[in-house]
Amino acid sequence: MCRKPPGCLADSVKLLAAMTDTFNIRIEKTNHSKLAETDLNNPVFGKVYSDHMFVAEYHGGEWQDVRIVPYGDIKISPANTTLHYASTIFEGLKAYRGVNGETLIFRPQTNARRMMKSAERMCMPPVPEELFMQGITELIRLDKGWIPDKAGTSLYIRPFQIAMDPYIGIRPSDTYSFYIITGPVGAYYSEPVRVKIETHYTRAAAGGTGFAKTGGNYAGALYPALQAARQGYHQLIWTDGKTHEFVEESGTMNLMFVIDDTLVTAPTGDTILAGITRDSILQIARDKGMKVEERPIRVTEIIDAIKKGTLQEAFGAGTAATIAQIKTIGHDGTDYDLPAVESRIHSQGFLDTLNRIKSGELADPHGWIYKV
Ligand SMILES: *Cc1c(COP(=O)(O)O)cnc(C)c1O
After folding, report:
1. Which of 64, 141, 230, 300 shows its CA 20 to 30 Å from the CA of 309?
2. Four-way CATH pick for 9-185: 3.30.470.10, 3.40.1010.20, 2.40.50.140, 2.10.109.10
3. How far is the centre of ligand 1, averaged over its atoms, from the C-alpha of 91 (Å)?
């Protein structure tokens, strides 16, 4: 149970109702813009950050001191509870330069709502959707010059919330900070990936935190991923923690397969993160009249389909990579090569449609595009 009411469901609903008004954002601009010295169109993923960051602080039961300041280090107590117990959640989304030069963001309200779900599970006070949206909007307006325009590039947006109490006892914090940082990014994977079906280690278990974008899920995945990397794989395919018989997701991407012209993916639940890319691809597939199945997928079904030649496509879906084609699946010491990436008309179609909606080139029937 949460000791502090705002992190708990009933109270967080009350809190949200009380906080639908707009926030006053104080803006302190940098005197040392790094924009001129940055090669925007060849960014290394996650290494370059824009000039400013958004900050809001939670104390006394309220989000306050809302501001945009020059990007820079933050000061933290050595006893900070997040450093010890991973009281941290995050989001990831992207801003694009539209075909008409406008700044477009893909489904940011969905990220705002997902972060509130992560907050609830981690006993943190939710960041109201209004604060999340206002923060992103004002920050991107100020740093819009940082959005690259080469095909495949975008401005990555990383909102995150951390507990701030300088207290090493284990309990929900009284104080939190919410930040948004951004940085130009290019393609996440430059080539189709080799993945290994993991049947020993577990990422998420029923009743656990797998559905939340919270730090510990990722730190705990590093060791198994390193073992796989030593065997020559880029990524893992996680299986269910109980039997290891069902494929779940890939750690930062949801997994999708095309088998017999049907798009198949595992259902989201408490062990699989509800990816926005996943949801968008399912919708696009349905719009195109393709058969779609969200259901548990056995490892043996995938291996059998590869052997029979009915598995046509396999890919990861997530904001960072959008679609990461899988070229090889390793299972139980055997590597299975999948059909050539050039033959994958379905996923290439999804990618093309998604990219064109994101750039404003295609109609946006589901209201996914937010104009800054
Ligand atoms: C972020 C993430 C995804 C992908 O979600 P998107 O909203 O599509 O970016 C999938 N799985 C995990 C574990 C993630 O953290």
Report:
1. 230
2. 3.30.470.10
3. 9
The secondary structure of the chain in percent helix, strand, coil, rounded to multiples of 5, reads 30, 30, 40
319, 351, 354: residue to mutate for ligand 1 pocket, most atoms within 8 A of CB:
319
CA 45 – ligand 1 centroid, Å: 16
Nearest alpha-carbon partner for 144 in 213, 64, 225, 51: 51
Question: Beta-strand (E) ranges in the chain?
Answer: 26-27, 52-59, 62-70, 88-90, 93-97, 103-106, 154-163, 176-185, 193-198, 235-238, 246-247, 254-259, 262-265, 291-294, 297-298, 311-318, 322-331, 334-337, 369-371
Domain borders along the chain are 9-185, 193-362
Ligand 1 atom closest to Cα of residue 203: 13
Q: Sorting pLDDT into bands at 50, 70 and 90, what band is 365?
A: very high
pLDDT for 7 beyond 50: no
Q: Please give the distance, rounded to the nearest whole angstrom, from the Cα atom of residue 26 to the centre of ligand 1.
A: 31
Give the CATH fold of the 193-362 domain: D-amino Acid Aminotransferase; Chain A, domain 2 (3.20.10)
Residue 93 CA to ligand 1 center (angstroms) comes to 10
Provide the terminal-to-terminal Cα distance of the chain, rounded to the nearest Å. 39
Query: Residues with Cβ within 6 A of ligand 1?
Result: 92, 213, 249, 251-254, 273, 275-278, 318-319
Q: Which of 261, 263, 268 is nearest to 281 (CA)?
A: 263
pLDDT tens across 11-36, in order?
554 455 445 568 999 999 999 999 99
Tell the residue nearest (CA) to atom 15 of ligand 1.
252
